[in-house]
């Protein structure tokens, strides 16, 4: 771990360490020197943390800070209550992907204003940012207030739930009526954005190149049969008409960023090949005459939109990443020359630090 990373973790954990940790100084030293530590909490409970578990430690510290009650037993079973009515249990010593995702939700959700219930009360009686977590056939499921469901095993917590349904990042204009509209979703990951736009009434062509993400999306669509009727899942990449090599992190199967444009993961990157399709090919193959919204979160594929295809697009929303020769200025000029009025915006500290990454929303100028 570099000094930069140590400072990063300390900055994130600092406010929570101050509030709920008893052995504050020992924990800070453990982070600096990358050591395992027994974290002692103010209520007297203790949790063993390895030096490789700092992200999980951040989620634990945040979740326990936001909780109204919590406990940790000698077997590292964590119980968290946010309202004294709904209890969530996490087996930390043998942390499953499900429980890891639940832990993340119990941190990031309250951080951005969400609450979670585990009982059978009617969810529509609660506020909009309410989510129910329950188990069916030994599989944990999370459901939002509108009834959209996901398997906890098959989500990327920040993208699937936090960004789409808590922070509502894909809601760009309340006056847009998506009923009977066409959305092309380049980078559908676990199915959150296709389900979001389908819930608004749109027909969604959901492109996801990474096999594990695509399979997660189809599993989540199976929980939402009616909305799934409006979604066409496609295991292909948007960009170029050729077989494309994607580079991704080698440490996980779901949620890691992947790109055919650049490799930010170094020589140990995990590689996979998938068929690519240009926007013009997509329009022809699926007989699409007009795209009401082109949504792109595909780590560089936004720089491969053919000019002659943009005339069929009314609105475009891009989570862009500009690296090397791919400049945001060039993308803005292309969209402007194609008749779009564009705005740029950011939503996080990491994106606020430069213009390398952010969001771009463009609407076709009415003549």
UniProtKB/TrEMBL annotation:
SUPFAM superfamilies: S-adenosyl-L-methionine-dependent methyltransferases (SSF53335). Residues 187-305 form the Methyltransferase FkbM domain. Signal peptide: none annotated. Pfam families: Methyltransf_21. This is Methyltransferase FkbM domain-containing protein. It comes from marine metagenome. The lineage of its organism: unclassified sequences, metagenomes, ecological metagenomes.
